[in-house]
Amino acid sequence: MADQLALLPGFLTAHLQLSLAALSLGTLLSVPLGIFVSRRQGLEASVLGVASVIQTIPSLALLAIMVPLLGVTAAFASSALGIELRSIGFLPAWIALTLYSVLPILRNTVTGIAGVDPALVEAARGVGMTPRQQLARVELPLAMPVIVAGLRTATVWVVGTATLSTPVGATSLGNYIFSGLQTRNQAAVLVGCVAAAGLAILLDAIIRGLEVGLRERRRNVLSLSGAVLAALCLYTAGATASGWLAGRGEAPVRIGSKTFSEQYILSELLAGFVEREVGAASEAIQSLGSTVLFDALAQDEIDVYVDYSGTIWATIMKREGLPEDRAEVLRAVRKFLMEEHGIVLAAALGFENTYALAMRGAQADSLGVERLSQLGAVSPGLEIGGDYEFFQRAEWQALESTYRLAFRNERSMDAALMYQAVERGEVDVISAYSTDGRIAALGLSLLVDDRGVIPPYDAIVMVAPRVARERPEIVEALSRLEGRIDASAMQRLNGAVDSGGRSPARVAREFLETLP
User: What angle is formed at CA 428 by the lines to CA 451 and CA 310, rounded to 5 degrees?
Assistant: First the structure.
């Protein structure tokens, strides 16, 4: 718990920055837009309809959509305007959360203005006020409690949704939740949930104070709430400025990772290795989506990360069928990465973490299933669980068609919960990772891919084009990791996190000390 609490100030500050920035921009957009459409009745339904449609998009999907959209925008801005934009991190999360904040503020602005007593508006007109004066002195002051009530609703939505910004690279309290779920660290999940709930309650109470002060004309409540909100805004602005000034020097080497334990360990290991061997500052950017991470590397927004040759082969290169051996896959992947994206394959770490279908050992024995060719006949009576992307991957399509798999149900779930589900018998088969320490700990049996459908999955260290060009010493250092981690070592490291409850950073640090 102490390790988790030590991270709290940074994560909480980042979450507060993201939330307040989104709410500020959302208010600046929504209130003037609400005023505008309240004056033009024909536009009201269509504008509110668009805002409602945005609200119906699942939050994680909206965040993910921002990444490729910003990728295109960033390329144009860089070439045409000389402006560098990032398609991962703060910016996509800020835009998505701003869009989520619009509907309640916009709707309450329209409703609040429409609810002003027409007699008061007529009286204002009768004493000679212009339309602008009527708005500023009569309609907006009377509508303001309703508008602020909309801001309260938006605040709770934004603070909660901000926890989902982790997969697009934005630091938030969601870092606790995503990493905690993957590593079965309940303390991390608890701290993240409690902190996010506490922040939402605090901001809601502050804005409620503004609402009460405006509605009941209680200046002391209005002043106190305004002062607390201003203090939070000043704090986040100061933290943002401090981070910007700190980042004006040489940027740290950004090590990315996907959303499972092995990736957390390897990102921490690479970060420590680069610092030790090169003397360069580094940071681990964790819990990114798979395709988001590759695109970020190709666009120089992430400097280094570990992927797997089979993922590049099937998902990025979109190759079907397999070459003769693992070495040929590695050669083809290395050539593709350099020629198509300028990415350098610095090292193959020495182990293969392939997808594999796994069952409880006792169930596999009772069904007489050791090989995937034996699974097809019994699959109609079984359920399979896979990680978020497994059932959309080319490997799964190949497995289905080759082995004639037709499961009773396919269930996508968090990778950590997937192992828990098969252990408890809630699913019968899962898409396991061959180096996962939980396979042995839970007594699972890996079914043999006897027709060689799944491609090799050698762990490879990939370096972004700009780092490869401008900082060759980093590539040279990482190349020294060639063949340094075998499958048994990786299984032990994963087991220490998944079954032993240790943090990925500590496990990586201890292993790094054993590397000469």
Answer: 40
